[in-house]
Write a structure and sequence with these properties.
Blueprint (H helix, E strand, L loop, with lengths): L5 E8 L5 E14 L4 E8 L5 E6 L6 E4 L3 E5 L5 E6 L2 H15 L14 H7 L19 H11 L3 H13 L2 H15 L2 H16 L3 H7 L5 H7 L12 H8 L11 H20 L12 H20 L1 H12 L5 H18 L4 H14 L1 H9 L4 H17 L1 H10 L10 H10 L7 H13 L13 H12 L1 H11 L13 H4 L7 H20 L1 H11 L1 H6 L7 H16 L3 H9 L4 H10 L5 H15 L3 H15 L7 H21 L5 H16 L4 H11 L5 H12 L4 H8 L14 H43 L6
Antiparallel strand pairs: 1-2, 1-7, 2-3, 3-4, 5-6, 6-7
Length: 787
C-alpha cells in the first residue's frame, strides 16, 4: 500500500475531557513490521520525530466528523483525533482505514468494538439488517420511540444503526415538528417522551446528528425538548433565558455572518452541555465526548476567524485605549478581550504564539496599564485575567515591554508597579486577587524562565530594573507596618520587647505574608540584588519585628525569610545577623511560646538545628556567647546542648592549634643558645652571616655586622657587646666555655627574646586580646531575655 502524506494536527483527550494538542505533522498509512499490520504514522513537520504510531485494528471504531476530523479510542479512556488541513487528505486516510476494516467509506463510523456476549448475539442477526427500524413519527408512537432510543444506548452496534436510521430518514426534524405540536396542545406526556428521545439522541455521540440538531432552525426546539424533564414539576425556561436574558453584545459590529452564526451556536451548545444536561455518571462520561469536541473545534474556528479580521481587532484596541471611550463601553471591550484570550487556549502552540504576538503588536500591554487603574472592580478583575494569560504564555514579552517604560513614563505608572499596587490594594477580605497577582509577579522575576540563549543579558537587566524601580513599592507596606521599630538597631537590648507590634488586622497580616513569601523567593533566586537590598534597608530587622504578631502564620513567614537567608550559608549575611543581634527576636519568640509544642516551636528549633548540623561556626559562637544561658534550660531537644558542644570543640581545636606555635621564653632562649653553639663550630663566617640574615629581619643588620666582626677578630668582642646590648637588658649566662661564644650569645639573647618570640607569638597575643575584649563586652551584649 502506498504512503499517503497529509498535513494534520494530533489531539488527545485528557482526564478533564479537554483536547490537548500533541503537534502538527504529516500522516501516512503503511505496514509496520513491529505492529504486524497497517498503521497510521504521523511525523512532526518540524523535526521528523514520530508523533503517532497507531495500528488500524479491525475492531477499533473510527469516526469521521465535520469532513476534516477522524476520531477513535485506543485502550481504556484514551481518545485520539486527527484534524486535517484539507478535506481531500481526510477522505484518503478514511478510505485506507475502511479498506483495512472492510467497511464502506460512505459511512461516518466504522464498527464499534463489542464484547463476546454481544458478538454471539449479533451473529444471529441477518447481514442484510443494516438499520434499526424506526416507528412512524407520530404522536401516538412517541413512547415507543423513546423506549427504542433508550434501549440502544447500552449496545455500540445498535447505537450506530439507530444513528444511521435517524440520519437517513430526516427523522430529527420530524420529531422537532411533533414537539411544537405537543407544546401547542400542552401534551405533557408527549413532551416528557420527547425529552427522553432528544437526550438519548445526544448520548448517541454522533457528530453528524449534532450538525442537524445544532443548526439555526433546530437548536431552539432541541433546547425546548430538554426543558420538559419528567423529574421536574414545572419545566425550566431555558429558551427564555437564551433569547431574552442572554444578550449578544457586539463591542464592534461583526460583519461576517458565518462568524456570527458560529458564535451563537457555540454559546448555545455550551449552555446545553453545562446547564441543561445533567452531570454524566461514571458510565456516561464517554457519551458526550463528541459534544465536547464539537465545542472545542468551534472555538478554534472562531478565534482563527477573528484573528484574520485585522480591521476588527484594530478597532477594538483603538477604542480600548481611547480616553474618550465611555466607561461602560470600555468594560465591554475588556470583557471581550478576556473571552477572546480564553478561547485562544484551544489553539495549537504555534497558532497561539501568533495570536499573542498579534495582541502585543496591537498594544495589549499599554491598554492593560490603563484599565488596571480604573475604579471598576469588574474591569480590573478582567484585566488581571488577561494579564495572567499573557504572563503565562510569554513572561519575556511582558518583561521586554516593562523595561522600555522608564524611558517614556514615571515610576508610579509602570505596569509592574500598577500590578503591585493592585495586589496591595485588593479589597477582597480573602485577598483572592492579590494571591493571583503575587503568582504572576513571581513568574516575572523568576530567573528560571528568563531566556539565556537568545538574550544573555535579560536576567541582569530585568533584575536591575526591578530592584531600581519596583522593589520599594513592593516592600512599602512591610516597612510601613514596622516603621516604629526603625531605631531598634541603636538599642539592640530587648528591642523586640520594647516595640511589640504588629498589625492585628487579619487582611493586613495576609498581605504582609504574601509580600514575605515573594521576598523569600527573591532570597532564594536573586543572590546579589536581594542581598544588597537587605543590607541597605536593614530589611531582616524589620521583618523580624513581625515575630511578635498575634497571627502565627505571619510570624512563621518572618521566620521562613530568616531561615532562607541562613540556609544560603553566606558569611556576609552571617556577619550582618551577628552585628545586628538579629537572633534576639527569634529567641524571644521561642521563650514566649513557652512549653507549647506547636509549629512555631518546631520551626525555630529546626533553624538552630540546621545551624548545628551545618556547623556554621560564626553563628554558633554568637548564639552560645550571647544566648546560651537563656537556652540551656531547654532540654526536651538536644539542639542547644549540641550547639554548646560544637562551640567547645571548636574552642579546643583553636586552642590546640595555637599551642603548637606557643613556646615558653626559657625554651626559646635555650634553643637559640644551642643554635649559636652549633653555628660557632662552622669555620666559615660567611655561612653564619647568611643563616642569620635569613632568620632575622633587615632591622638587625647592625647587630649582624657586629657579630661578624666578633667572629673574625677577638679584639672586637667588647665593641660588639657595647653596640648591641640594650641599656636595660638583663644578662644571660651561657653554659659554654668559649669566651667568643659567650660574647656573641650575650647580645643575642635579649634580641631573640624581644624579636623572634614576638613574631611567633603574635597571632596568640591577638587572640588573647580578642578574648579579653569579648569577656569585657559580653555582659553588655547579652540581651535581657524574658521567659
Amino acid at each position: 500500500m502506498s504512503d499517503t502524506r497529509r498535513r494534520v494536527k494530533v489531539y488527545t483527550l485528557n482526564e478533564d475531557r479537554q483536547w490537548d494538542d500533541r503537534g502538527t505533522g504529516h500522516v501516512s498509512s503503511t505496514f509496520v513490521e513491529r505492529l504486524k499490520g497497517i498503521s497510521l504514522l504521523v511525523r512532526a513537520e518540524s523535526d521528523g520525530s514520530l508523533l503517532l504510531e497507531s495500528k488500524i485494528s479491525p475492531n477499533t471504531a473510527y469516526q469521521k466528523q465535520q469532513d476534516t476530523l477522524i476520531v477513535w479510542s485506543e485502550a481504556d479512556n484514551y481518545d485520539l483525533a486527527l484534524s486535517f488541513q484539507e478535506k481531500a487528505g481526510c477522505d484518503e486516510i478514511w478510505e485506507k482505514i475502511c479498506q483495512v476494516q472492510g467497511k464502506d467509506p460512505a459511512l461516518d463510523i466504522t464498527q464499534d468494538p463489542i464484547d463476546e456476549s454481544e458478538e454471539d448475539h449479533f451473529e444471529e442477526i441477518p447481514e442484510t439488517t443494516h438499520l434499526v427500524e424506526l416507528p412512524p413519527c407520530e404522536l401516538g408512537r412517541l413512547e415507543e420511540i423513546a423506549d427504542l432510543v433508550t434501549s440502544v444506548l447500552s449496545s455500540p452496534i445498535r447505537r450506530e444503526k439507530l444513528a444511521l436510521a435517524l440520519m437517513s430518514e430526516g427523522y430529527i426534524k420530524k420529531l422537532l415538528g411533533l414537539f411544537r405540536v405537543c407544546e401547542d396542545l400542552d401534551n405533557r406526556e408527549g413532551l416528557h417522551h420527547l425529552y427522553e428521545i432528544v437526550r438519548g439522541v445526544l448520548f448517541l455521540n454522533k457528530a453528524a446528528l449534532f450538525e442537524v440538531m445544532f443548526s439555526d432552525d433546530c437548536i431552539m426546539d432541541v433546547v425546548g425538548c430538554l426543558e420538559y424533564d419528567p423529574a421536574l414539576v414545572q419545566p425550566k425556561r431555558h429558551r427564555e433565558f437564551l433569547t431574552k436574558t442572554a444578550k449578544f453584545k457586539e463591542v464592534i459590529p461583526i460583519t461576517d455572518s458565518e462568524l456570527r452564526q458560529k458564535i451563537h451556536q457555540t454559546y448555545r451548545v455550551q449552555y446545553i452541555q453545562d446547564i441543561i444536561l445533567p452531570t454524566p455518571s461514571v458510565f456516561e462520561e464517554n457519551f458526550l465526548s463528541t459534544l465536547t469536541s464539537f465545542i472545542f473545534f468551534n472555538k478554534v474556528e472562531i478565534v482563527s476567524m477573528l484573528q484574520e479580521d485585522e480591521k476588527f481587532l484594530t478597532e477594538v484596541f483603538a477604542q480600548l485605549t481611547d480616553e474618550a471611550t465611555e466607561e461602560s463601553k470600555r468594560r465591554e471591550l475588556v470583557n471581550f478581550v478576556k473571552e477572546f484570550c480564553a478561547f485562544s487556549q484551544t489553539l495549537q502552540p504555534q497558532n497561539r504564539d501568533a495570536f499573542y504576538k498579534t495582541l502585543a503588536n496591537l498594544g495589549i500591554l499599554p491598554a492593560l496599564e490603563i484599565v488596571m487603574g480604573m475604579d471598576d472592580l469588574q474591569v480590573r478583575a478582567a484585566a488581571i485575567d488577561i494579564f495572567s494569560y499573557l504572563v503565562e504564555f510569554s513572561p519575556s514579552m511582558v518583561r521586554e515591554f516593562v523595561m522600555q517604560e522608564p524611558q517614556q513614563t514615571e515610576d508610579d505608572v509602570l505596569l509592574i508597579n500598577v500590578v503591585i499596587k493592585q495586589m496591595i490594594c485588593d479589597s477582597d477580605p480573602e485577598l483572592g486577587g492579590a494571591v493571583q497577582l503575587m503568582g504572576l509577579l513571581r513568574t516575572l522575576i523568576d530567573p528560571e524562565n528568563m531566556l539565556a540563549s537568545t538574550n544573555k543579558t535579560e536576567k541582569t537587566e530585568f533584575l536591575s530594573f526591578f530592584y531600581k524601580y519596583c522593589m520599594h513599592v513592593l516592600t512599602a507596606p512591610l516597612l510601613a507596618n514596622t516603621a516604629h521599630d526603625k531605631n531598634s538597631k541603636d538599642h539592640p537590648e530587648g528591642s523586640a520587647k520594647i516595640n511589640p507590634v504588629c498589625p492585628d488586622n487579619f487582611q493586613t497580616a495576609q498581605l504582609l505574608a504574601l509580600i514575605l513569601e515573594l521576598l523569600t523567593f527573591c532570597v532564594e533566586h536573586h543572590t546579589y540584588h536581594i542581598k544588597t537590598y537587605i543590607m541597605n534597608k536593614d530589611l531582616l530587622r524589620r521583618v523580624l519585628v513581625l515575630m511578635n504578631s498575634k497571627h502565627t502564620f505571619l510570624a512563621l513567614c518572618a521566620l521562613r525569610f530568616m531561615r532562607r537567608i541562613i540556609g544560603l550559608k553566606d558569611e556576609y549575611y552571617n556577619r550582618y545577623i551577628i552585628k545586628g543581634n538579629l537572633f534576639e527576636p527569634v529567641i524571644n519568640a521561642l521563650l514566649d511560646n513557652g512549653t507549647r509544642y506547636n509549629l512555631l516551636n518546631s520551626a525555630i528549633i529546626e533553624l538552630f538545628e540546621f545551624i548545628k548540623v551545618e556547623d556554621i561556626k560564626s553563628l554558633i559562637a554568637h548564639i552560645v556567647d550571647n544566648f546560651y544561658k537563656a537556652l540551656e534550660s531547654i532540654e526536651y531537644v538536644q539542639t542547644f546542648k549540641g550547639l554548646k558542644g560544637r562551640y567547645e570543640q571548636e574552642k579546643d581545636r583553636q586552642s590546640q592549634k595555637l599551642n603548637r606555635y606557643r613556646r615558653d621564653a626559657r625554651f626559646l632562649d635555650e634553643d637559640e643558645e644551642l643554635w649559636f653553639n652549633d653555628e660557632d663550630d662552622d669555620e666559615d663566617g660567611e655561612a653564619v652571616e647568611r643563616r642569620m640574615d635569613d632568620d632575622f629581619s633587615d632591622s638587625y643588620e647592625k647587630f649582624m655586622e657586629a657579630k661578624k666582626g666578633a667572629a673574625n677578630g677577638a679584639n672586637g668582642a667588647n665593641n660588639a657587646k657595647s653596640a648591641t646590648i640594650p641599656p636595660a637588658s638583663p644578662a644571660v649566662t651561657s653554659n659554654t666555655s668559649s669566651s667568643s661564644v659567650k660574647t656573641v650569645a650575650l647580645p643575642a639573647t635579649p634580641v631573640v627574646k624581644t624579636a623572634l618570640v614576638g613574631l611567633v607569638d603574635y597571632p596568640d597575643d591577638e587572640d588573647e586580646e580578642e578574648e579579653d575584649e569579648e569577656e569585657e563586652q559580653s555582659p553588655r551584649k547579652r540581651p535581657r531575655l524574658s521567659s
